[in-house]
Write a structure and sequence with these properties.
By secondary structure, the protein is of the alpha/beta class. The protein folds into 3 domains: 80 residues, 3-Layer(aba) Sandwich (Udp-n-acetylmuramoylalanyl-d-glutamate--2,6- Diaminopimelate Ligase, Chain: A, domain 1), CATH 3.40.1390.10; 211 residues, 3-Layer(aba) Sandwich (UDP-N-acetylmuramoyl-L-alanine:D-glutamate ligase), CATH 3.40.1190.10; 153 residues, Mur ligase, C-terminal domain (Protein-Tyrosine Phosphatase, Chain A). 28% of the residues lie in helices and 23% in strands. It contains 15 helices and 23 strands. β9, α5 and β10 form a beta-alpha-beta unit. α3 crosses α5 and α14 packs parallel to α15. The longest helix is centred in the middle third of the chain and has 17 residues.
Length: 471
């Protein structure tokens, strides 16, 4: 069954189809486009119209354009629209309207991508499940996800993000979820908001899209929980968290070097489950996913059992072993958390590192170490320096043997470190990447974390290049 025919796509977008074609997917990137995809020529850093000919050479089934670009013949399969982004939103709206799927929308300052992926894992075991790729959660990512949704989808998981006020509401109304969730509210994107309450109000706009009879899921442990509750006024509200007053509670969490062991009460029923990766924040995300599964009508016990198949997405706490030399045992453990960072997620990542067990007696130094390589946390507003410096007060930091810092903001933390714990400070990730081979050794456990814009993912790549990486 085709995803879109020329006629269906034209009706959905108000565009004019050139040729009689059908497509099996929707793509905005010629680097990852598959044969039979509809190529959507969005304008971003580059104009997608410049890549239409290339997409067709790669056997795209058709292209959505606002004008016929150079190098494209008159008989090319096209969908000509007034505006490509507007038409993509219309295609997404039509994709959502033609399915009977139960839809959950997820937002939050921390944990939305991990929670989305947990939901994908647990719902896929109970029905045909469609979820956003990577972090496709913005003004083009949400409609693209909806446009890609097969007609026979039974569960859909839509991630919704924001950088500025007014972004979440329109996307939520496009997604029309039956269940909408805010994982947490934390100091992220503060430069665009006056305070945490402002962030909470924007996150709470996800409830504007709820279908009639829908469920609003709110983290009940937050300072801003009342703000979220007001935003959900008029809808059925359920809370989750560790506090006694929550409708669904996380009652026990223990971390091992390889797993997170959890006990929770969901809808009055006790559930035991394991996550095959350490992290207290993963436990709360898992609770949120189980509560959402329950609200969607899925079997919570089966969902809890399926949770142990979940692994963090790349760059969000993924653990891997890097073999540094040929002799057996000369390995180190890399925790790749280089995609996103704010004070809350930084604390969670440092707790995970503190719970890890290095290996003694295998490296040059003989004693395995817990090492953190930390890049700047971006978009924190006027208090950004103080927020970086305050990381020194985290109790989990005491368990870290050495901290290396990258960027002008993270220098505020570095200056508060003492003795051997104060490692190297450099201004850029490129400088850290050039030095990292001198900073780590076999037996070490190394966390690399920072905002995506800090580019510390370059340091992750440099560590991998030191040897052979094994997930």
């Amino acid at each position: 069954m085709s995803l879109w025919t020329a006629d269906d796509a034209a009706k959905a977008t108000g565009g004019k189809a050139q040729g009689d074609w059908s497509v099996d997917g929707v793509s905005i990137d010629t680097r990852t486009i598959q044969p039979g995809d509809l190529f959507v020529a969005l304008k971003d850093v580059r104009d997608g119209h410049d890549f239409v000919a290339q997409a067709l050479e790669k056997c795209a089934g058709a292209a959505m354009v606002s004008h016929i670009p150079d190098g494209v013949t008159a008989d090319t399969p096209l969908l000509v629209v007034d505006d490509v982004l507007t038409a993509l939103a219309a295609l997404g709206r039509a994709g959502r309207a033609r399915t009977d799927a139960r839809v959950v929308a997820v937002t939050g300052s921390v944990g939305k991508t991990s929670t989305k992926e947990m939901l994908r894992a647990v719902l896929s075991a109970q029905g045909r499940t469609h979820a956003a790729e990577a972090s496709y959660n913005n003004h083009w990512g949400v409609p693209l996800t909806l446009a890609r949704m097969p007609k026979d989808t039974e569960f859909a998981v839509i991630e919704i993000g924001m950088n500025h006020p007014g972004e979440i509401g329109p996307l939520a109304r496009l997604a029309r979820p039956h269940v909408a969730m805010v994982t947490t509210v934390a100091a992220a994107h503060l430069e665009a908001f006056e305070d945490l309450a402002g962030i909470a109000r924007e996150k709470g706009a996800i409830f504007e899209g709820l279908e009639e009879g829908g469920v609003a899921l709110i983290n009940g442990d937050l300072e801003t929980t009342p703000v979220l509750t007001r935003a959900a006024d008029g809808h059925h509200v359920e809370s989750f968290g560790e506090g006694d007053g929550n409708d669904h509670r996380l009652t026990h969490v223990s971390l091992t070097p390889d797993a997170t062991i959890c006990k929770a009460t969901v809808a009055g029923v006790e559930q035991m489950f394991k996550i095959a990766s350490p992290g207290r924040h993963f436990a709360m995300n898992a609770l949120a996913a189980l509560v959402a599964a329950h609200a969607l009508g899925a079997d919570v016990t089966l969902a809890a059992r399926a949770m142990n198949t979940w692994q963090p997405p790349t760059g969000r706490g993924t653990r891997e072993s890097v073999t540094l030399d040929a002799p057996e045992g000369l390995t180190m453990t890399l925790i790749d958390d280089a995609f996103n960072a704010n004070p809350t997620s930084m604390a969670a990542a440092l707790e995970v590192l503190g719970a890890m067990q290095p290996t003694d007696g295998v490296g040059r130094i003989q004693k395995g170490r817990r090492i953190a390589i930390l890049g700047d946390m971006l978009e924190l507003g006027p208090d950004e320096v103080a927020l970086h410096a305050a990381l020194a007060d985290l109790p989990f930091l005491r368990a870290i043997d050495q901290v290396h810092c990258v960027g002008p903001r993270m220098q505020a933390l570095w200056s508060r470190l003492d003795g051997d714990q104060q490692g190297l400070w450099v201004a850029t990730a490129a400088e850290m990447s050039a030095q990292v081979h001198r900073l780590i050794d076999a037996g070490d456990v190394v966390l690399v974390k920072g905002s995506k814009g800090s580019l510390v993912s370059q340091t992750v790549d440099a560590i991998r290049k030191m040897g052979q990486s094994l997930r």
